[in-house]
Each structure stands twice: as structure tokens, then as C-alpha cells.
């Protein structure tokens, strides 16, 4: 009887392990399906505010051709780089999303372009994936974690995270300083949907005040890869340089004693413009990875303010 009980327990553990492994692979497949060649529709609009004096933002409606390329594929880490194809001669390196499994290291956005490094309890991220979103210059933007679910053939993931103001509002609104993002990603037949229920927050020493509620969605629909032929050539030339940029940022974040703050403009020059120019120069002059990293670090340092 004791032997039979041991066999049953072992069988149960093996079945549980197999299920967990199957779930992990389902998660990975869902994340990897975010990559591809897309036409993207961006739609955002304010839907409510408790402040009678709040001036509603003009609805934002835009379209773009975007290529999402997997640049790192590890068992518990998948990195996807997005690139905008403007036309046959213009490419913009866009945002990046890093997906990490059961990751206890996270950076919480506080306010005023500052992030707080936090170590989570392993129990809080058990079975969960963290989406770490980065700016076009590979500086941090926001990070949130949650479960991937796979029900009835539909895969979805959701989380809540604070972030800086979106680029579409950062230069036109000064009445709030944090965007609390309620994000939901759903895999669709022809691509994926990125829905957002956002709160525009005024954060002060006294606490948070919700100024307005915003609804948004970004619809990614697969299109002909031929649209991205120039973008693929451009990225083939640039990707080694940007790998060095990512490495430098990672080293700087790791070395930071606590929180750190990133200035977007120094002496009238934008950080992303500085790094993009360096990339072109690196290719033209055929810099080595060591030369890249030395120049990248020197370029980023003036924009980076460490905080204890």
C-alpha cells in the first residue's frame, strides 16, 4: 500500500510538472506571436473626468506600418524590437518590449522621469510574465506583470503599471504627471489588440488624485512583409549597435544604487537624437563593440541622474 501511495504521489507530481511546462510553452507561443509585420491603428480618447474644469484632450487617431522582430528568444526571456517603416527610405527604431518569466526585479515609475528599483516577493510573480517597455532610446518607460490566460483558444495578458505621460501628450499637457496604465493584450486571428484603461494621475507628496480616465486601443493587423524590405536592411546594419546600447543601459541600471532619473533633453538636444546619430556614425566609421559602448556611455551619462 505504501508503495502504491508513493507511485500515485509521483504520478501526480509528474502530471503537475507537465501541465506547468505546457502552460509555460503556451505563454511563450503567445508572446512570440506578437512579432510580425503589421499595420497599426492607434486610438485614444478621454472618456470622463470628475473635474468640471478639465479640458478633454482631442481624440488621438493615427496609423503606421510597424515591424516587431524577436531579437532575444530564451526559455524565460523574450525580447521584441518594434520598428516603424515610414516609407521606402525612412525607418524609426520604435519601442521595445522585454518579457521575463517570474521576474522579481522590476522598476516602478514614480514621477518626473524617475524610476524606483524594486525586488518583488517570488510568490507575487509565480507563474507570471513581466512586460518591460522601453523608449525609442532604450531608456525605461514602464513595467508591469500578470498572468497569460489561454481559454477557448484565446490568449490574453493584463497588468497595471505607472508610466510617464505618453508622447502624444507630454508636450501639450502639464496638468498631470503620471499615467496609470491598465493594459490588456489579446491575440487575434490576424494579429493582436492592445487595449488600455488609463488614469491620468496628479501625484504629489500628499498622494494621488485621478484627473481623468482615458480609453485606448492599438490594433495590430498583419500585412505583406514586402512593405518592410528597407526596414529589414536598415535594422540589419543597425542591430549590433543597438545591442550595445541595451547592454550599456543594463549596466547603468544595475550599477545605480537606488532610483534613477533620466532627463530627455540636455542643452536642447534630445537623448534619442543623440543615440541615433551615434548609430549612424558607428556604422560609417565601423566602430568595434568596445568603441560603441564607450561612446554610448559617454553620451547617456549627462542625461542620467542617480538618486538614492
UniProtKB/TrEMBL annotation:
<protein>
    <recommendedName>
        <fullName>DUF4440 domain-containing protein</fullName>
    </recommendedName>
</protein>
<dbReference type="InterPro" id="IPR046715">
    <property type="entry name" value="DUF6607"/>
</dbReference>
<keyword id="KW-0732">Signal</keyword>
<dbReference type="Pfam" id="PF20311">
    <property type="entry name" value="DUF6607"/>
</dbReference>
<feature type="signal peptide">
    <location>
        <begin position="1"/>
        <end position="20"/>
    </location>
</feature>
Amino acid at each position: 500500500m505504501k508503495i502504491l501511495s508513493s507511485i500515485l504521489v509521483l504520478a501526480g507530481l509528474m502530471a503537475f510538472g507537465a501541465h506547468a511546462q505546457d502552460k509555460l510553452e503556451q505563454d511563450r507561443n503567445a508572446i512570440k506571436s506578437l512579432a510580425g509585420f503589421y499595420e497599426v491603428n492607434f486610438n485614444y480618447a478621454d472618456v470622463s473626468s470628475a473635474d468640471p474644469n478639465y479640458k478633454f484632450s482631442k481624440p488621438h487617431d493615427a496609423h503606421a506600418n510597424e515591424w516587431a522582430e524577436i531579437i532575444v528568444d530564451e526559455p524565460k526571456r523574450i525580447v521584441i524590437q518594434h520598428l516603424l517603416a515610414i516609407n521606402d527610405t525612412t525607418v524609426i527604431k520604435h519601442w521595445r518590449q522585454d518579457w521575463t518569466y517570474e521576474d522579481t526585479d522590476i522598476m516602478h515609475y514614480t514621477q518626473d522621469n524617475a524610476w524606483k528599483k524594486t525586488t518583488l516577493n517570488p510568490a507575487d510573480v509565480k507563474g507570471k510574465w513581466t512586460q518591460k517597455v522601453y523608449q525609442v532610446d532604450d531608456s525605461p518607460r514602464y513595467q508591469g506583470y500578470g498572468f497569460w490566460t489561454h481559454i477557448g483558444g484565446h490568449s490574453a495578458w493584463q497588468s497595471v503599471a505607472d508610466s510617464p505621460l505618453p508622447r502624444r501628450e507630454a508636450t501639450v499637457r502639464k496638468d498631470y504627471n503620471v499615467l496609470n496604465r491598465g493594459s490588456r493584450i489579446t491575440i487575434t486571428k490576424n494579429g493582436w489588440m492592445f487595449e488600455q484603461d488609463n488614469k491620468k494621475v496628479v501625484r504629489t507628496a500628499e498622494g494621488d488624485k485621478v484627473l481623468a480616465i482615458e480609453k485606448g486601443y492599438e490594433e495590430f493587423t498583419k500585412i505583406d512583409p514586402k512593405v518592410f524590405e528597407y526596414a529589414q536592411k536598415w535594422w540589419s546594419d543597425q542591430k549590433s549597435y543597438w545591442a550595445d546600447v541595451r547592454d550599456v543601459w543594463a549596466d547603468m541600471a544595475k550599477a545605480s544604487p537606488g532610483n534613477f532619473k533620466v532627463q530627455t533633453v540636455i542643452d536642447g538636444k534630445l537623448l534619442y537624437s543623440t543615440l541615433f546619430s551615434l548609430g549612424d556614425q558607428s556604422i560609417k566609421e565601423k566602430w568595434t563593440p568596445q568603441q560603441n559602448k564607450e561612446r554610448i556611455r559617454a553620451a547617456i551619462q549627462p542625461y542620467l541622474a542617480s538618486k538614492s
